[in-house]
Design goal:
Keywords: Membrane, Transmembrane, Transmembrane helix. By secondary structure, the chain is mostly helical. 65% of the residues lie in helices and 0% in strands. It has twelve helices and no strands. It has helices at residues 2-11, 14-17, 22-44, 49-52, 64-92, 104-131, 133-140, 159-175, 180-198, 207-210, 218-228, 239-244. α3 packs antiparallel against α5 and α9 (180-198) packs across α11. It is globular, with a radius of gyration of 19 Å.
Length: 252
């Protein structure tokens, strides 16, 4: 009943959902909303010592200039690259919505499946773009401009990287036959986990602290990648790095 009520509420904005502007504005709004709390922490941390205790790289400082540079770059990618593609997708494949919401268990299963598939795809993409020097220099190096992560570095990347990872996130729900509500919730979760990965903070309720047995890397895992470059290629989970021998723990 809860999912059906939520889906009925969303369908009340049917005309907006079918708009070519919706995908870009939705992803950008969710992204900026998730970045905002960490931006506030970055602004307060120079003045409040207790906030700095949660910073992974405690001597780092995030300036207004750094934040604005990342934000402007992200806005540029959305306007110049992502928006034209969403318009083409809207023209060739108009959105359609069914009245019935997905079942709870099916929704959870599909979201987890999409997340695991995205994690694998991103791991392979990331590994290749580090192991092949030309790929790194040409496409991925821009994302490594900052060796200290902060939330707005999440989408500080070149067009190819932005489009590649966006393609993985978009195509997986289609491949798995997910309900539109499931697709939306996967996008929201994926954006949150990506922002959290880059936030630069190891907070008490961070995702990696909630998932047992070290199965999930989280912000410390990805911050170590930006610091060391040659390890921790998977965005979220740790099993692929364990299998490929590329896992580097912060305590190592």
């Amino acid at each position: 009943m809860l999912l059906q009520s939520l889906w009925d509420f969303i369908l009340g904005y049917h005309a907006w959902l079918r708009s070519p502007f919706f995908p870009v504005l939705f992803s950008l709004s969710v992204y900026l909303a998730f970045c905002l709390p960490f931006v506030v922490l970055d602004l307060l941390s120079p003045r409040l010592a207790w906030i700095r205790t949660f910073k992974i790289q405690q001597k780092s400082h995030v300036s207004w200039t750094m934040m604005w540079s990342c934000l402007a770059h992200s806005l540029y990618n959305h306007v110049v690259f992502l928006f034209p593609l969403t318009v083409l997708h809207w023209y060739w494949r108009p959105a359609s919505f069914i009245a019935e919401a997905p079942g709870t268990l099916r929704l959870i299963w599909d979201v987890v499946a999409c997340l695991l598939l995205f994690d694998f795809q991103s791991f392979i993409w990331h590994l290749l773009h580090h192991k092949v020097p030309w790929l790194y220099r040409t496409f991925h190096k821009v994302h490594h401009k900052h060796t200290t992560t902060f939330a707005l570095t999440t989408e500080y990347s070149g067009a190819w990287e932005t489009l590649s990872l966006g393609f993985f996130a978009s195509v997986n729900p289609l491949l798995l036959g997910c309900h539109p509500l499931t697709e939306m919730l996967f996008y929201v979760l994926n954006i949150w986990l990506s922002v959290e990965d880059h936030c630069g903070y190891d907070l008490p309720l961070s995702t990696h602290r909630l998932v047992p047995f070290g199965l999930y890397g989280g912000a410390p895992h990805h911050d170590m990648h930006h610091l060391k470059f040659k390890s921790n290629y998977a965005p979220y989970f740790t099993h692929w790095d364990r299998l490929f021998g590329t896992l580097h723990k912060s305590s190592d």
